[in-house]
Design goal:
2 domains, monooxygenase activity, membrane, metal-binding, extended, single chain, two-stranded antiparallel sheet, Cytochrome_P450_fam2, 56% helix, mainly alpha, transmembrane helix
C-alpha cells in the first residue's frame, strides 16, 4: 500500500510541495522580537485590505496589536508607529538610529547614491547635508528674511482656504502651491499667484 502511494508521487510534486511549504513558513514566520501585526496574504501582504483609507485601517489594527505593530507590504515587513510617544521616541530621541533609508534600486540608479532624501544615513549623507544647509543659508533659509517670506505665504494660503466659504475641498493642491512658492522665493526671488496660468501649468506637469 505504502509503496503504491509513493509510486504515484513524482519528483515534480515533491518540489511543488516543499516550495509551497517553505514559502508559507517564510511568510508567516516573523523575525525575533518583531512587533505583532496582521500578516495578510502571501505575496501581497495586507495591501488588499487597506482600501481607500489605509490610515483608518492601520488605526483599527493598532487597537488590536498595540501602538507599535508590523505589517507585511508585498515582500517587505514594515513597522508602524501609531501614537505620539513612540513616534517621538523613535524619530526624535533616537533619530540617528531611525534615519536610514531602504535600498531602492531605481533610486540608486537615478541618483547614483547621491542626494539627501533617498540615500542611507552615513558619512557621505552627513557631508551632503552640511553642504546643502550651507548653500540654503546663502539663500536666506534660517534667517529673518526667510521667515517673513513664509509668514507672507501663510497669509495667501489662509485666503485661499477661506475662499471656499467653509465648504469641503481637496487641500492638497493649495498646500502644494504654498510650498512651491516658498521654494520659488528662495530660487527665483519671487512668488506666483495661485491662479497664474503659467504657474498652474508648471504645477500640473510636476505632479504628473
Amino acid at each position: 500500500m505504502l509503496q503504491h502511494l509513493l509510486g504515484d508521487i513524482n519528483v515534480s510534486s515533491l518540489v511543488i510541495f516543499f516550495t509551497a511549504f517553505l514559502a508559507l513558513y517564510y511568510w508567516y514566520t516573523r523575525p525575533k522580537n518583531f512587533p505583532p501585526g496582521p500578516r495578510g496574504v502571501p505575496f501581497l501582504g495586507v495591501i488588499p485590505f487597506l482600501g481607500n483609507y489605509p490610515e483608518r485601517v492601520m488605526r483599527k489594527w493598532s487597537k488590536k496589536y498595540g501602538p507599535v505593530m508590523s505589517v507585511r507590504m508585498g515582500r517587505e515587513d514594515w513597522v508602524i508607529l501609531n501614537d505620539y510617544e513612540n513616534i517621538q521616541k523613535a524619530l526624535v530621541k533616537q533619530g540617528h538610529s531611525f534615519s536610514g533609508r531602504p535600498d531602492i534600486p531605481v533610486f540608486t540608479q537615478i541618483n547614483n547614491g547621491m542626494g539627501l532624501l533617498t540615500v542611507d544615513y552615513n558619512d557621505h549623507w552627513k557631508m551632503q547635508r552640511r553642504f546643502g544647509i550651507t548653500t540654503l543659508r546663502g539663500f536666506g533659509v534660517g534667517k529673518r528674511s526667510m521667515e517673513d517670506r513664509i509668514v507672507e505665504e501663510v497669509a495667501y494660503l489662509n485666503d485661499a482656504i477661506r475662499s471656499h466659504n467653509d465648504k469641503p475641498f481637496d487641500i492638497l493642491g493649495v498646500l502644494s502651491n504654498a510650498v512651491s512658492n516658498n521654494i520659488c522665493s528662495i530660487v527665483m526671488g519671487r512668488r506666483f499667484d495661485y491662479d497664474d496660468e503659467r504657474y498652474k501649468e508648471i504645477m500640473f506637469r510636476l505632479s504628473r
